[in-house]
Write a structure and sequence with these properties.
It is a single chain. The chain contains 10 helices and 16 strands. The chain has helices spanning about 10-30, 100-120, 135-145, 160-170, 180-185, 230-235, 245-250, 250-260, 270-275, 300-315; strands spanning about 5, 40-45, 45-55, 60-65, 80-85, 95-100, 120-125, 125-130, 145-150, 150-155, 175, 195, 215-220, 240, 270, 290-295. The strands form 3 sheets. Strands 11-10-8-12-13-16-14-15 form an 8-stranded parallel sheet. Strands 1-6-5-4-3-2 form a 6-stranded mixed sheet. It has a two-stranded parallel ribbon with strand order 7-9. Helix 1 crosses helix 10 (about 300-315) and helix 2 (about 100-120) crosses helix 10 (about 300-315). The two termini are about 20 Å apart.
Length: about 325
């Protein structure tokens, strides 16, 4: 069998909007994130292996992703992997995709889908924490969805922060680098959108500084003991997750405040399907009180929806 190999160019050709639309279509079509298969974690010598299966009536797939913390020091990507897409009825392989490139497109698309439903059409001040591939991908995804007036990039490495700010300027956005993560954290006080795309295991900023009405998105961690935002932000915010089950198993941003008694599972105001369809939203999402916080840990159904769209888009 001559299995098509879909690489980074094929995946990037779908574009952020195509990926966001694929995710929204899956949810509007009835996909329930709460019943989606869980991610499996396997410890290996180089780090962690993530096995992420998913299925619909049309297609089935599985991503095998590696998280190798020491790779950046070797000049190698931190995230590796492959995605196998199969026909659901026969389980015959349809395509093999570059798993790292798929993740680089899918994760920002999930965030952008939440942003599509949580923010207005204009972002006056975007504060972007992180300078790696996900930060670049999130910038592209937000610019595809919203008009952004100003960007501040906050990162540990000033040169990398300036490089991303320069990239944003070349895309036509007023952008600058913050003065290091510690000082740049104060930028959130004037932000209406904050994106957290880092590997930090501890909060990046004081959540009490985030204005009411602002949206905060955190994607960097998927373990119970790591978080990018603090308890103050979670306690103040309307909280949206991909699925309650996944968030309460993996999202340290929520599990740590839960252990502290400052947040309860009932404090999750909606999952992504409820946000997209407008069904069953509750709590702070029904009003304008406080910030809005979207926490993403990454789920297999998202990879499947985007991989299937890439496959369709690449068909002759």
């Amino acid at each position: 069998m001559n299995l098509p190999l879909l690489g980074a160019d094929d995946i990037e050709a779908l574009g952020p909007t195509g990926a966001v639309d694929a995710l929204e279509s899956a949810l509007r079509g009835g996909l329930d994130p709460e019943t989606a298969p869980a991610r499996h974690h396997v410890s290996v010598p180089g780090g962690e292996l993530l096995i992420m299966p998913a299925t619909t009536r049309q297609v089935t797939g599985v991503k095998i992703a590696g998280v190798a913390p020491d790779n950046p020091a070797r000049g190698l990507p931190r995230i590796t992997g492959s995605y196998l897409l199969l026909d659901a009825a026969t389980l015959l392989p349809l395509a093999l995709l570059d798993g790292a490139a798929l993740t680089t497109l899918r994760t920002p698309a999930v965030s952008a889908l939440a942003i599509r439903h949580l923010t207005g059409p204009v972002v006056r001040h975007l504060v972007l924490f992180g300078t790696g591939p996900q930060a670049y991908g999130h910038l592209a995804a937000v610019l595809a969805e919203r008009r952004v007036e100003r960007v501040t990039v906050v990162g540990r490495n000033p040169d990398r922060a300036e490089a991303l700010a320069g990239h944003a300027r070349r895309l036509g956005v007023d952008a600058r680098a913050g003065q290091g993560r510690e000082h740049g954290a104060g930028e959130v006080a004037t932000a209406d959108l904050v994106l957290c795309c880092t590997t930090s295991a501890t909060p990046l900023f004081d959540g009490s500084l985030v204005p009411d009405g602002a949206t905060v998105v955190a994607v960097g961690s998927h373990t119970p003991d790591a978080r990018e935002v603090d308890t103050a932000l979670v306690a103040r915010s309307a909280v949206v997750v991909e699925s309650r089950a996944a968030a309460l198993a993996e999202a340290g941003d929520l599990l740590i405040p839960l252990a502290e008694g400052a947040f309860g599972a009932e404090g999750i105001d909606g999952n992504l399907a409820e946000l997209v369809t407008g069904r069953h939203l509750r709590g702070k999402l029904s009003g304008s009180e406080g910030p809005r916080f979207f926490k993403s840990v990454g789920m297999g159904w998202e990879d499947l929806a985007v991989a299937a769209a890439v496959h369709r888009n690449s068909a002759p």
